Structures are given as C-alpha cells and as structure tokens.
Amino acid sequence: MATARWEALGTGVVLRVADPLWLPRASAILTRELDAIDRACSRFRPDSDLMRVSSRAGGRPVAVAPLLIEALAVALRAAALTDGDVDPTLGATLVLVETGIRVEDACRPAAAGGECPPASVGYDSDWAQLRSAVGGEPGREARGCSADVPAPTVLAQWRGGHRMVELDAALCTVRVPRGIMLDLGATAKAWAADRGARAIHEAAGCGVLVGVGGDIATAGPAPLEGWRIHVTDDHRSGPDAPGQTIAISGGGLATSSVAVRRWRRGGRTLHHIIDPSSGAPARGPWRTVSVAAGDCTDANIAATAALVRGERAPAWLDRQGLPARLVAHGGEVQRTGTWPE
Amino acid sequence: MSTRPHTSRTRDAALRRLRSANRWLLAASAALTGVFTAIAATAFPGKTLRQIHGRAPADAHRASGTAHARSAGATGSSTLKAPAQAPRSSSGEAGSATGESVAGSGSAGGAAEAGASGSQSGSSGAESPSGSGSAGESGSVGSGASAETGSSGSSAASGSGSGAAGESSAGSSSAGSSSSVPAESEAPVVSGGS
Question: CA B181, CA B150: separation in Å to the nearest integer?
Fold first, then answer.
C-alpha cells in the first residue's frame, strides 16, 4: 500500500494504491485527469470552458470540450435526481452570497464603474480571475467534438434553474440564458475522483483509492480490511478528529459539511451550500453529512442534497437505499440504512 | 348465369364480418403506430421545446430548455446507486470537544463518546506510523506531493518510475522535493467537507 498527497482543484488530493510500484504512474495519471477537468470545469480559471459558457450567457451556443459536456450532464443529472436541490446554475447566487456583489456588477469593466470584489471574503477563491473571466474575452477558440465520446444521458424532468441549460451532447455545445452562471462545485470533484480511480485501475489493475477534497472514490479490489476512511467535518483534519472510522469495499464515499468555508457578513454566518429554493445558504439541522454509494459522484450528490433537504433528508436517504451518517449542529449523530454503529 | 338472392341473413353475416375486420384493422394500426413511434424515437433523438417557468432571467420566458437525451454514457443512471456492500465499522465513533454525540436514531443528548475507539490512528497527528515505522519512502510524485509507502513499500523506494513505464517521468522528475513522511499504510483516509 502506498499513498501520495498533493493539491489540485483548489483542494487536497490523496491517492492510495495497493501496489506501491504503481504510485508514480498512478499519480501522473491522476494529475493529468485533474488538470483536464480543471481546464474544462473550473469557475476560477478565465480560460476554462465553463467560464466561456458563462461569459456568453444569453448568446449563441458555445462549443466546448466533451469533458465539460460530460461534467454538465453529471451536474444536470444530479439536479434531476434531487428535484433541483443540487443545481449547477447557482454560480451567480454563490458569488452573491460569497461577496455580496452581483455578477453583473463584478463583471462590468472598471471604466464603467464596475466594482472589484473584495480580496478576502472568507472564501478562498480568486476573484480577480473570476472577474476577468466573466467580463473578458474568452481565451481560446472552441474545440471540435470527438465523435467517439459517448453521449451522456440527460434526464428530461428538470425543475428550477437547471432547466434553462441547453446542452447538446451531439454538437458539444452549451448555452445558458443571460444571468445564469454555471458552477460545478457540487459534483465536479467527486466526478473527478471517480474518473481518476477508474483510469488508474484500468492502467494498473490493482486496487486504488482517490480522494479529492474529501470525496473518496475507489476502484479495483479493496484490501482485506477494506478501504479505511475517517469521516469528519473537514477533510483537512487528521484521522484523530471527531468523527467515525469505517471501511468500504468499493464504490464511493463523500462528505458535505457546512462547518467548513464559513464566514460572517452583516451579522450572519454564511457558508457555501446554497439552497436553490431560497438562494441563501442552507439552514437545515445538519452540520455534516457523509454518504456511501455506488460511486463517489452519487455519494456526493446525496450528501449535498441532504444538507439542503434538512429534516427530510434521513427519510429521503432511506428511500434511496443509501447508508449515511448525519451530524446535527449540536453534534448528535443519526444514521440511515446500513451505516455502521 | 344465376345469382343467389341476398337474404337478410346473409347481409347481416356480411356486416358482422365487416365490423370484425374493422376492429382488427383499428387495433393493428394503433399497435403499429406505437411500435413505429418507439422505433423512430430511439433512432432519431431530437430536441424538446418546453416552456420555462419560475424564477427566470429576462429572456427565460422564451421557450428553451433543451435536453438531449441519449442512451448510453457513464452518467445515465436514473437513480442514485447504492453501494454494493454496506460500509463496515472500523473503529466506531470518536467524539471530542466539538461534541459529536451518538444518538442511534437521532435522539439528542447522549454523552459524547470520547474517542474510545480512535486508538487505531494514534493519539496525535494524521500520519501516525502504524506497525513498521521505518517503511520505505518512495520518490515524490509530482511537485509538492508527498508520498508514503506502507510496510511493503521498500520496493517502491528504489523505484520511482521503475514500475511505471512511460508515464512515470512526472513522478520521478521532482524527486528532490520528496518529503519525509512517516509510513501510513494503516492510517485511514479522511473524508470531510471541503
């Protein structure tokens, strides 16, 4: 067993492979995978495909990389499966919550009186990049769509802002209406972990665990004792932090929490999990939710949706057949499904 | 040349046959319409125009919202996938000053269980050695990365790249930046909010 750690996608990455000899190559594979996803899906890179789409909101469909099409399909599927509780069109709302500044204002050229978002708002995003990305010219020309990329399935039943995303998987184009800013923060990291784990397993054949920002994906045979994972509020904590250590034999495990990325403004405590129905940080009873699922993406979708759903979350998770551990703001722990004691 | 006279009975019989034939034709055409519709829908997926409602920006009153539905693809499941195997307990709950109390079915107020089972990871630090603390450290895996191997890691120490054909250069190129991190083959990976 060998483990490597580094930073990517603005968060901590952990890679564990059953065969230590494969660690260097597995790291290279994962690094390449994460770089590609960052280039396509980052909200904080002016040259990302995602930002090109947002910067042309209301205009013509934008040709993007197949990777963004897949990532958007994952995000739209998340919205469909959660009745819109996990919505990829909340980017502008998120910026408003983070900074108190509307995207339109933030993106107006300085000469026209546009504001520059504050450098520090208790949230580690690069606002200068964000501003130039949304207001500036796209840095790249659109790329063609590879014909051999499998067209993702997008469910037809949409509700909420995500309904307005026009995604054409065949032409690899995306269009969003004016005022919509995409944000894949709720699904992209978990999806990246899944992709990375699969790619490494396909290359190495051995068991692999990939963690991106606390979202854990596994592929291949697990160790005899299973992949041991400590669930807690903050993925940057150590295994001695308050929480629980469990073992999984496959699939994925994700934790969403409102205990991290919190800040205060105007006398209110804010965080980054947005309730689409209110456009404000979710105010449910849960502080942290961990979910085990068939893959990391689904685990993360369920964990984030549970924070938004609040009181209704345990019953919903039970109906989905997902083992989960929900920690209330006061520290009380509730479990659903087959989550161990 | 003679013709049989049409009696009312033969006329009624003919009408019955005609009615029966009509029914069969109607049923068959309905069934065939359904079959051809399904075949066409599968063969030629298209765009669906739908009216947009709700909290929309200025131009959202126009019909839009395109869903390109195709079968296949990695993202196609219409339900959240449950794990094939249930997670197992590895150490139980570890409470602390921040107070996670275990309330089996959501009942509050239980006293926090103070880390009785957290011993597997040592008492301090995330990277506590477990078992063979002198396990080999492999080369670094990319700038700024730290790598640790478990008890079987001695072979990796000699081989940053040796076992990795082709793509190992990234891993071994920055070997100088490798950091000395204790082995952690048994330390659990942390899942938390980010």
Answer: 11
Candidates B70, B83, B100; nearest CB to A153? B70
Sketch the domain layout of chain A as residue ranges.
Answer: 2-35+206-336, 45-175
Beta bridge partners of A257: A288
- The Cα–Cα gap between A189 and A297 comes to 8
Subunit contact A321:B90, Cβ cutoff 8 A: no
Reported confidence tier of residue B92, pLDDT bands at 50, 70, 90: low
A250-265 burial: b if 16+ Cβ within 10 Å, else e: bbbbbbbbbbbbeeee
Q: Test B106 with A334 for CB contact under 8 angstroms.
A: yes
pLDDT digits (tens, 9 = 90+) for A28-50: 999 999 999 999 998 888 889 88
Asked if B78's CB is within 8 angstroms of A232's CB, the reply is no
Interface contact B171-A255, CB threshold 8 A: no
CATH of the domain spanning A2-35+206-336 = 3.10.520.10
| Preferred mutation among A33, A218, A240, A329 to probe B, highest tally of B CBs within 10 A | A240
